[in-house]
Amino acid sequence: MGASDDDREGGAVAPTGIRRRTLFGAAGAGALAVGAGAGYLARGSADAAEHPVADPDAVPVDFAGEHQAGVTTPAQDRLHFAAFDVITDSRDDLVSLLQDWTDAARDMTAGNEVGKFGAVAGPPVVPPEDTGEALGLPASQLTLTIGFGRTLFAKDGKDRFGLADRRPEQLVDLPHFSGDRLEPAICGGDIAIQACANDPQVAVHAIRNLARIAFGRASVRYSQLGFGRTSSTSEAQVTPRNLFGFKDGTANIKLEDTDTVEDFVWARSGDGPTWMDGGTYLVTRKIAMRIETWDRESLEGQQGIIGRAKGSGGPMSGGDEFEPLDFAANSRDGEPMIGEQSHVRLAHPDFNGGAKLLRRGYNFVDGSDQLGRLAAGLFFICYQRDPREQFVRIQNNLAGLTADLMNEYIVHIGSGIFACPPGVGSTGYWGESLFT
Amino acid sequence: MGASDDDREGGAVAPTGIRRRTLFGAAGAGALAVGAGAGYLARGSADAAEHPVADPDAVPVDFAGEHQAGVTTPAQDRLHFAAFDVITDSRDDLVSLLQDWTDAARDMTAGNEVGKFGAVAGPPVVPPEDTGEALGLPASQLTLTIGFGRTLFAKDGKDRFGLADRRPEQLVDLPHFSGDRLEPAICGGDIAIQACANDPQVAVHAIRNLARIAFGRASVRYSQLGFGRTSSTSEAQVTPRNLFGFKDGTANIKLEDTDTVEDFVWARSGDGPTWMDGGTYLVTRKIAMRIETWDRESLEGQQGIIGRAKGSGGPMSGGDEFEPLDFAANSRDGEPMIGEQSHVRLAHPDFNGGAKLLRRGYNFVDGSDQLGRLAAGLFFICYQRDPREQFVRIQNNLAGLTADLMNEYIVHIGSGIFACPPGVGSTGYWGESLFT
């Protein structure tokens, strides 16, 4: 077989060192383009300027920046989230892993393959550096966002990496919330990586290649796919619906509202350790929905539980989707139109000391369970400046069957909290400030 | 809560009888549109003609036709496949289920909600007829394709529905193939429904609502999500890649090749029972990939196993992707350039008595297993005129560790075979010819 493959490699296929994804990228993007002339260019192709295409997925999201991308980036359509356990006790190995990951993240978010050779141009006698399934696909607005769990700083009382005294106090051990039924196998993790893209194949490719690079240093603890984002972070985006059929994210922080983003999302100087300045805190919750039970609830009942109309998304106190909630409005029988146990009321800043979250959740369907019920729900993701004052406070208000009426239809089965370091520039690596 | 909800329903939200998805459809489609002027129209909106948008997802795939849609329809990007067990022994209940399903399929493939009232316009005191999560989304080229399993005709020797003598001989019990490790919970099923769409939320919505309609008559046995189709059925589509990183579907039947489609896909008069004239036979295989093992194989090794170059997809005998395979070509050392145990050789019509399949597979990632490995692979779907001469013949050629070299990296864990009846017109129901 050797000679025949050498023949191929020496022939029409792959001059060593040429990045294949970029070669194929222009064709891929062009095939996806709808209409023309919108001013976007295919990237990475030598003749990109000659072939303008209308596909925004061909324009990468900047990896470098003051903050990590994937937080205030308008939410992409697909998610692959992975939590890793670090399996080395060597600080040097951990640092080299973060360096290797950062290099690969730079490559992949730009729409390129990982590694020096790419998928198909390396020496034929070694495995390809890139696994190849994203060849020909555009960058698809891929973002990769990293966070560090409590166990990276100290695990079972052991300070593996000399980081114990650098753990921010904001990175709390989440308390038990009433009603939690957490499954340990899908909780925690030393490191989390959120891959968001408009194509699931691109998001899956990214997590797979990061997992592969981690070999011997970190292994995947759990991973989760999601689709159909449930939270809008840009005024330009239509509010998507969750699997209860309701618009989800109407009252979310809008990324155009920079003052609110500054106040509620980014850790700033003086908040905690300086290595987190410009970072943020990520909380994830895998929330299973009792879909079949919900589907037997009346329209009136569903709307009362949520506090919004199912069709328009407008509050039960009246008006369209973006009308402010009027908690004082009463119906003819003297009851609040937005019920006291409704989800929107209990989650609202007015009932949580003004606290707000930047949410970025994704619907998930993991097939069906053994009873034929959809194994489905919401992979809830939120970013914040201080989880103690934001997620924990709000979730304490929501949790328990005597609180949010929605709790009859949901179960929290997975949980994680992570400190996401600030962004990196065109050099440097994820979390460098933690190690220097 | 009652009065307040009544106020909402009587007010700004939902005049009874108006189809909400169509109301919201125009805005949703417009928000997704890229560029303008491509001549597509938003459907369902009263003023659609005034707001042309460029989104092909706004144009539904015809549900009515001689054949069912979803077979030779150019493959959409996303899959939700479900197998059902019929849980009634009443023939009348089975017929009514098929009628109800057909009505709902007509609605949903057109981009509408199911039922008379839609999601949010029915009486508030009963559950909404539609679950609502696709409100505002375009039709997204949704197709729904039904097939009947062997157990619908007779199960455990019992002829539940008086159909035993109508089972086509083509609907064989698939033999055990060498290497199979089938898990019974994800095999078989009385009825299969394939939902394909360009938006996973639309595909999930369809299966969910069909499962809900089936309550008391059929329940989901298993379901599977997939993405990034691995087989092209149109010359206009770029060949996608599977999770081995190789183009998959290069040699697939092209739908433009109508003679081949007629010869290999559609059951014709005289083939079997007349109720299947214009139908086709569906075989599904859930194929788990040993991703991490594959990723350690050299580029040369991977290409030798497949028989094609990873980058271009061209055969190892030379040429670009669509160059014919030259099985006689030898390398300098006298070995065949396309190895005798390569996948493309063993699957090729030349080595299978000319047999061809119309493939329509989807990549799947079900998260990670307990060892942190990707629970991933290919949900293989193929359509054919006679599985005995097509899938069974080819799979016998591929199966076993002494045959296709790829078998070291894959395991077949799920399996199904179904008789897909012909299409229905603007009236009638799925499988009507079987019951009359």
Description:
Chains A, B: Its main location: other. Chains A, B: It catalyses: heme b + 2 H(+) = protoporphyrin IX + Fe(2+). Chains A, B: It comes from Solicola gregarius. The structure is a homodimer of 436-residue chains. The first copy, chain A, is built from eleven helices and nine strands. In chain A, 58% of the residues are buried. The radius of gyration of chain A is 23 Å and the shape is globular. The first copy, chain A, has helices at residues 2-10, 20-32, 91-109, 150-153, 200-213, 258-264, 291-294, 299-306, 343-347, 391-398, 432-435; strands at 78-86, 143-149, 191-197, 218-227, 280-289, 358-359, 362-368, 374-384, 410-420. In chain A, 22% of the residues lie in helices and 17% in strands. In chain A, strands 1, 2, 3, 4, 5, 6, 7, 8 and 9 form a nine-stranded antiparallel β-sheet that branches. Mean pLDDT of chain A is 87; it is low at 1-53. Chain A is α+β, with helices and mostly antiparallel strands and 436 residues long. Among the domains of chain A are: 23-59, no CATH class; 289-417, no CATH class. Chains A and B meet through helix 1, helix 2, strand 1, helix 5 and strand 4 of A and helix 1, helix 2, strand 1, helix 5 and strand 4 of B.
